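Memo to structure team: turn this sequence into structure tokens by end of day. - J.P.
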Amino acid sequence: MEGEVDDEDGTFTNISLADDSVDRGSAALRSRNHNDYFIMNCDLDVDVENQVELEEKTRLINQVLELQHTLEDLSARVDAVKEENLKLKSENQVLGQYIENLMSASSVFQTTDTKGKRK
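Reply from structure team:
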């Protein structure tokens, strides 16, 4: 009911029932004498709240982006380490085969018949 008369000083009191999501529901009881001050005060409060929310969102977005970049860097590092690991395994196999071939070709590492030498 808009336009009710206040019995004390004869001024009108307005109650806004509109759902205004931009003002974050700041529908308020407004007196005609204090209308401008109250609206300005509410707007400042909403602006401060919006500014704080915006700063928090910006901080969180920056943090998420930083974490994404860190994850990308770590994934790239893991891939590089996997490749290096495969390369080293392959080199180890080649070296192991080379050592085995040297040992089999050398008379020092040949098995001897210990029974035949003792007789």
